[in-house]
Write a structure and sequence with these properties.
The structure is a single chain. The protein has one domain: MetI-like fold. 74% of the residues lie in helices and 0% in strands. The chain is built from ten helices and no strands. Helix 3 packs antiparallel against helix 4 and helix 3 packs parallel to helix 6. The longest helix is centred in the C-terminal third of the chain and has 37 residues. It is elongated, with a radius of gyration of 22 Å. The protein starts with a helix and ends with a helix. The model has no long low-confidence stretch (mean pLDDT 90).
């Protein structure tokens, strides 16, 4: 239900928000929750509740792009490494080892800071640095499937390697792939919110949960709800996606066990 509400807010946020997310009321300024403003207003008189709704878009689109991009590239490399083995496996996994040795968040902060930051720059960097995690997970799951009789039978029948990987092996590792994708989504949501909190994500003034957290520090005691609300939404959305990932893993695994 929480994730469904976030999806609706991301798609129709500007339509269902009671007020404009960027509409300022300098005369009103900072105010506590009231009937007109359920979560109060910030220092510029902007309605926090409306900004929270509209901010769901950046909270959903970026992590979704990271999760799907990392899944597509990581699953491909993981299948190749686990199925082919030999030199292909060695090259891919040495690259993975190198990427794992790099402190990802620090690299993103340095690169984003040097290039002036930006939401899609942060998304691109997170995709690049998340792919090794997906690759290692899918490679391990593929190595477990390769010695099994159905793979040996497909090879004996002359089935092309691409078909074996995509239509035979991947469906059997899909529970792990889907659960891992949900985990990446949750982690990316927190990472993007953290980068926006540091001023390396969305542009100033954008309705974004991480940026709202950063801006709300100045009036934490004057209107604590305005600061706590976006933080609570980050935690709830990430937790919801993790729970959904666990549920999908169990469901897909049980279906595979019954076939």
């Amino acid at each position: 239900m929480i994730l469904a509400a976030v999806v609706v807010a991301a798609i129709f946020g500007s339509l269902i928000a009671p007020q404009g997310a960027s509409t300022q009321n300098l005369i009103l300024g900072l105010s506590k929750p009231s009937g007109a403003h359920w979560l109060g207003t910030d220092s510029l008189g902007r309605d926090v509740f409306s900004r929270l709704i509209v901010g769901a878009r950046t909270a959903l689109v970026g992590p979704l792009a990271i999760a799907l991009g990392s899944m597509l590239i990581g699953n491909t490399l993981g299948l190749l490494a686990g199925y082919r083995g030999g030199a292909v496996d060695a090259i891919i996994m040495r690259w993975v080892d190198v990427m794992w040795s790099i402190p990802s968040l620090l690299v993103i902060i340095v690169v984003a800071g040097a290039l002036g930051g930006g939401y899609w720059l942060a998304v691109s960097l997170l995709i690049l640095l998340t792919v090794p995690f997906d690759t290692r997970v899918i490679r391990g799951a593929t190595l477990e499937q390769v010695p099994r009789p159905y793979v040996e039978a497909a090879k004996a029948l002359g089935v092309p390697d691409r078909r074996i990987m995509l239509l035979h092996i991947w469906p059997n590792v899909s529970p792990v792939a889907v659960a891992n994708t949900c985990l990446v989504f949750a982690g990316s949501l927190v990472s993007l919110a953290g980068l926006s909190f540091l001023g390396l994500g969305v542009r100033p003034g954008t309705a974004d949960w991480g940026l709202m957290l950063a801006e709300g520090r100045a009036y934490l005691f004057a209107n604590p709800v305005a600061t706590l609300a976006p933080g609570v939404m980050v935690v709830l959305t990430a937790t919801s996606m993790n729970l959904i990932g666990d549920w999908l893993h169990e469901r897909l695994s049980s279906q595979g066990a019954t076939r």
